[in-house]
Amino acid sequence: MNPLKTPTLYRELESRPDNYKSWYEQGNILTEKEDYQQALISYENALFYYPHGYWAWYRRGTILEKLKRYDEAMESYQEASNSQPNNYWAWYDAGCLHIEESKDYPKAIECFQKALEMRPRDYWAWYRQGEAWRLLGNYTQALSCYDKALEERPNDYWAWYRRGDVFRDWKKPQEALENYSKASVVKPQDYWAWYQQGLILQDLKQYNAAIIIYKKALAAEPDDEHAYYNLACCYAILGLREDGLINLQEAIKLGGQKYYRLALSNPDLGDLFEDDGFQRFLSELKLE
Known about the structure:
The chain is mainly alpha-helical. Among the domains are: 1-84, Tetratricopeptide repeat domain (Serine Threonine Protein Phosphatase 5, Tetratricopeptide repeat, Alpha Horseshoe); 223-288, no CATH class. Helices cover 77% and strands 0% of the residues. It has helices spanning 5-15, 20-32, 36-49, 54-66, 70-83, 88-102, 105-118, 123-136, 139-152, 157-169, 173-186, 191-203, 207-220, 225-237, 241-255, 257-264, 276-284. The longest helix has 15 residues, at 88-102. The model is unreliable at 1-8 (pLDDT under 50).
């Protein structure tokens, strides 16, 4: 940013203090500098001279979000939408705020629907509306929204991943696996889609398949104690004691006391505690 812009703008404001455009532009400059309190003052001065300025209301809302003043941010987005009901951005950002902060999912759905009236092929509004439906537990509507998002971005990781979440929560494990698998095709180095597949396979007692998938998760996140612990459980159930011990030790090294206690209370891992080498390992960590 050219540092000369700010003093030049201040000179203009000194000569024309009733200039909406200059106050608004000063707010933008201060926002870029992350001086949010002063940016807020500038946008409010702009609105004093032009109370129906959509972009000043909208930018004021974004600043109030950064300042964690969420109720005021919502009011500012509403004022922006009152000023220009057919402008996408205030509806979209208000919807995000309803999901992330107020957890008012029906209101979020309404806001995203308004945004979609302006941009019916907008990936983000469809995806976010799907999130609101998912969090409400309306899985049919959530899937419909994710499908619309995928029409715009067929190889989108998050839409496939969230479809997996929907089917998992809907107790449809095979469909969940299919969707997490598609997410992994899009992002093969992403840990979470692999890990979710491992959990489902383990729950389905498909332990050999779960082991293969957990190893893929660990290839993405080599220091993940969760995957090591679940690998230990799978190996132990299959009677592969040495492999179980190796992975349980890794889980405890990384996760400490939490994973020691989990293992201690897990009957599937009981035989591993009888191993002398494992007892020495625990003794060295002072966990026995």
